[in-house]
């Protein structure tokens, strides 16, 4: 079964759906994840955030497909926020190179090339300031 995971889903939702689709009891599913049943219960209720490896295992077990959509400007904003300062100049430069490499002849990517160019410009301005 393929389930598309929206970027608005919370980790607890992914774990809960994986449990439901597994057909296992909480105890057996927790063992599969290498966690205790009380910890699984905390993940499902949202009282604890599952670690990345648990989320990935849940997604893989159920055949989830991750579908993230983000605008170029939102991506640039996030990069600018998460990688600000001179310590991350190399990271921003690497991201710039990635953006250069994907803005090729592919119609889908070319359609969004103006957004990519704007994002690259914003990243460059951040890198030089």
TrEMBL record:
One of its GO terms (molecular function) is DNA binding. Residues 15-71 form the HTH cro/C1-type domain. It comes from the Bacteria. Pfam families: HTH_3. Coiled coil: none annotated. Transmembrane segments: none annotated. This is XRE family transcriptional regulator. It comes from Massilia atriviolacea.
């Amino acid at each position: 079964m393929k389930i598309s995971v929206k970027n608005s889903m919370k980790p607890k939702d992914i774990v809960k759906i994986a449990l439901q689709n597994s057909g296992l009891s909480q105890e057996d599913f927790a063992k599969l994840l290498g966690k205790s049943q009380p910890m699984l219960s905390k993940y499902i209720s949202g009282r604890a955030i599952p670690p990345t490896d648990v989320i990935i295992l849940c997604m893989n077990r159920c055949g989830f497909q991750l579908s993230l959509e983000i605008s170029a400007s939102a991506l640039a904003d996030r990069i600018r926020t998460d990688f600000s300062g001179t310590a991350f100049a190399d990271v921003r430069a690497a991201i710039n190179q990635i953006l250069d490499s994907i803005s090729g002849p592919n119609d889908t990517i070319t359609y969004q090339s103006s957004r990519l160019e704007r994002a690259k410009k914003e990243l460059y301005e951040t890198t030089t300031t």
